[in-house]
Write a structure and sequence with these properties.
This protein is an alpha+beta fold and 210 residues long. Helices cover 15% and strands 35% of the residues.
Length: 210
């Protein structure tokens, strides 16, 4: 069993995934995408029984099928009280009933402003937009001890991009583990650059200070 969490949308549930022999195939077994599908199906099953659980839905990027998520939606049928406390006087935070959804910025592989290859923001037709940042859904996989396996696999604090449908040492799911999706902003360039002054101007200021 693994837990699927959607940060910021107050969604979390345990799902049961098929067993597999990790010793025979360390990169086998279910993927993050499999867990998302299992959570979506479990929600629908509970809803059919009359339990007002939230319903999870997600849409994959049609340009990169089975690789990246385009949007995540959580539909709360009833108000939900968060585990977090806003303040001692204001009490718990509430999530009003309704649909919570966010669509990631479309991206593609291309050439950045510094001439290096990498991800770039594009429009619906795949043309570069020139935006200096992207907002996107990013997943993190933890083992049963709460260790981020995507970082541990590389032996350092780096993180590589692994499609959520791919079986990889960095996203192998284990019993008691957890998948956390977070909406993150990734800056690709500085949004504002410092003013560059000429040596003459700097020298003039220095003379005045003396």
């Amino acid at each position: 069993m693994v837990k699927v969490d959607i940060a910021g949308m107050y969604y979390g549930r345990l799902v049961t995934l098929p067993d597999y022999d990790a010793s025979a195939d360390p990169l086998g077994g279910p993927t993050v995408r499999d867990a998302m599908i299992a959570a979506r199906l479990a929600d629908k099953s509970d809803r059919a029984d009359g339990d007002p659980v939230p319903q999870l839905n997600f849409v994959e990027d049609d340009r990169h099928p089975h690789e990246f998520l385009r949007s995540i939606t959580v539909d709360h049928k009833v108000d939900v009280e968060s585990r977090q406390t806003r303040s001692e006087t204001r009490g718990k935070r509430f999530y009003p009933a309704g649909e919570y959804t966010f669509r990631s910025d479309p991206i593609a592989l291309g050439t950045r402003t510094d001439g290096t290859p990498g991800i770039i923001p594009v429009d619906q037709d795949g043309k570069p937009t020139g935006k200096k940042f992207i907002q996107t859904w990013q997943y993190y996989v933890y083992d049963s001890a709460g260790v981020d396996t995507s970082r541990r696999a590389g032996g350092n604090e780096t993180r590589k991009i692994v499609p959520f449908s791919k079986r990889d040492a960095s996203n192998t799911l284990v019993d008691g583990g957890q998948i956390v999706w977070r909406l993150v902003t990734i800056f690709l360039d500085a949004t504002r650059r410092p003013a560059i002054k000429t040596a003459v101007e700097d020298g003039a200021k220095l003379n005045k200070s003396i």
